[in-house]
């Protein structure tokens, strides 16, 4: 068995994660229904897709702020902060592991430490995701939603011709992340180990893996 | 009076006031005690609209230009004397667009400020170039006969059937009343006093003494039985003097004599010389009056007859609208294809009894006028025009919208009652998300005119003349001839273009596209005149309406039998264009002719459907095949290699990718981001590449793991 770190997730973290995951998945689906209304007739009509997209987006924003509140007050934000003293070497080691080591059954470069559950590549990805892409999507989404309410503001920053494609690009990147994220969730000791940890909170020894 | 005769002084008046108060108090008590059942019935006291007598115009005496009764003198009716005089301010009335038609807007600066090409003389019908007749008013001050096209008298013979006299047929271009001592030609080319003799090719004097002048034709709009046909006949014959009398032909008060004069039927007059009111029935303009010129309008009719007779009604011809309260499914003639499923009115407003002047009203009519409030803090301004002022000086610049490319009556654009002045769009579109955005981007007509169920002009090709000496016209929305009652009227789907709204913001609206092909004289900076194109194409005119092509034309465009018609008579090679260019230079003296193609949109605001038939489906617009970008056919035989530009924009709007050239409005609508339709290609490519890349990487990575047993 490969030596993988053993992640553990609090109830708050798991609820937050699954709420975000569900919201993002639904936003992508309803977003596709809005982007391709004649080909993806989800929810019966484009109007329903827009309404759902708006409400789910609002839920995601609220959950994002709750997440910030939790991670700050519970001092869990350090999970996402790269250690600058060893970042480059650690990132290279992690990349080598994904590209080569994983196929050779090498030991996972990250030590099994509940306080450092994310590897450097994950940290940099989540930092970009949570601090750049998510806020970008929230801002462009809010402005598109508010195009009816704040037309002057929307026009000032280029109107829908700027906001629409920007939001769409962000959505594609989110979709790409989601696919990669789901795949990487399968590279634990067994394909289900990490997923189970995010459901149950603690990685449990897998019978097959132990065997 | 009785009170004052019995009592006098304040004491007595005070006593009477107290007595009246006591009586009133007693009555109120009695009414309160007996309750509502004893109150007079409201329905019994209210007159139904049918029972309310129409306000009748006083009986009038028809007077001649000297103010004498025409019954006595037998002379033509002078509306200046009859309607003007002591009642209406004739000079005020005729100084309005319906009588000037742009004559009082001949102003280079005005044209320039509205980006109107300088070869137009005015923005109105009297002065602007129009592709449909390919004619234009001669510019004043010319010295060369080859610069003369249509003079003022010729304009009146061609257009005076509808355009109602007054300014344009009463005064010369310098504002002098014709047939007065000061009215004289300013040289041999003065366009107010000449006409082009098309047989001799010379500019010759016009005999105003013989034609007379046509004063404002008040009857055409205010007599429900007005006859435009009879008026048109007299104007076309140059018998201007009697044109206003001719308008009354259908009332039977006049009868035409063989010499062109009219006599009066004494039976229609009262003993005092006034006309019996029921004969003229003078009133506000009815639907039928407006329909005489502007387009097919009727309260409720199942026969669209006038169009079948190919009479001119520009509004309907240009965009196919029908303002009629009857259901389309009830139409007897013409044959409307698929009418069985059209169980709704031609126009929902007509079905509700709304008439033209409800929206296109006189601007100072106190009953209808809109009150501008610069501070925008009043919903209603109770201070209005006095009715007496209005009756004396009714403004005949009628409220209108502003839909480019139409330029007429520039100074009164956006004065009419718009949709939002009656409808609360926010309330009645509860189903619609992003209302403000939709209402800003779309004119109401965009959803409420989903289709046109009549025919309209499609193209007018003055680039190649038919053997009748005129242009080749094609129509959309009809299989067969427009005057053939057996033709199938299939209707058409509109094209969408952006036009500025009241505030100058672009709105998408439905239009009919008319493609004009014409020759342009680059040296003179104006379209080549029709008579010049005729000189290039034809060797002669043996009979009226029959022209003989030049041998060069027959050789290049004719078939084996010498017949010059579609499909061979088209500009399918540059050589054919060069040939006609050479003929224009050789025979018509056009130094630098250039063939031009222009697509002109004609917006529509009638043939409105209600909410049941309006477009409600989001994917009509928000889809890959958005109707807003639907391909609309232009003209099957567009000259090859000639740019097809949009009127006033100078951008190409043709797409040759299909079997036939179609209208391509992508550039025109490029400022509108239509969710579900609009795409930025690199965003789509990069986005999907990133998604597909991650999927492929995951699949390859996973496969390698599986192969490695990991």
Description:
The complex is a heterodimer of chains A (211) and B (710). Chain A is an all-alpha fold and 211 residues long. In chain A, 66% of the residues lie in helices and 0% in strands. Chain A is built from eight helices and no strands. The longest helix of chain A is centred in the N-terminal third of the chain and has 28 residues, at 46-73. In chain A, 23% of the residues are buried. Helix content of chain B is 28%, strand content 13%. Chain B is built from 28 helices and 21 strands. In chain B, strands 8, 9, 12, 13, 14, 17 and 19 form a seven-stranded mixed beta sheet that branches. Chain B has a three-stranded mixed beta sheet with strand order 7-11-10, with no helix packed on it. Chain B has a three-stranded antiparallel beta sheet with strand order 18-21-20, with no helix packed on it. Chain B is globular. The model of chain B is unreliable at 1-45 (pLDDT under 50). The interface between A and B is large, with 39 and 38 residues.
Question: What's the SSE blueprint?
Answer:
The complex is a heterodimer of chains A (211) and B (710).
Chain A: H1 11-35, H2 46-73, H3 87-104, H4 120-145, H5 151-156, H6 160-184, H7 193-200, H8 207-210
Helix pairs in contact in A: 1-2, 1-6, 4-6
Chain B: H1 2-6, H2 9-34, H3 42-45, H4 70-73, H5 79-84, H6 90-94, H7 97-100, H8 108-113, H9 152-159, H10 167-170, E1 194-197, E2 202-205, H11 208-211, H12 219-222, H13 228-236, H14 243-247, E3 254-256, E4 262-264, H15 277-280, H16 287-291, E5 296-298, H17 305-308, H18 314-319, E6 322-324, E7 335-336, H19 348-351, H20 356-359, H21 387-392, H22 425-428, H23 435-441, H24 444-448, E8 456-461, E9 472-476, E10 478-479, E11 488-489, E12 495-500, E13 506-521, E14 526-527, H25 530-537, E15 538-543, E16 546-549, H26 551-557, H27 574-588, E17 593-603, E18 632-633, E19 644-646, E20 654-655, E21 662-663, H28 681-707
Parallel strand pairs in B: 5-6, 7-11, 8-13, 17-19
Antiparallel strand pairs in B: 1-2, 3-4, 8-9, 10-11, 12-13, 13-14, 13-17, 15-16, 18-21, 20-21
Helix pairs in contact in B: 9-13, 25-27
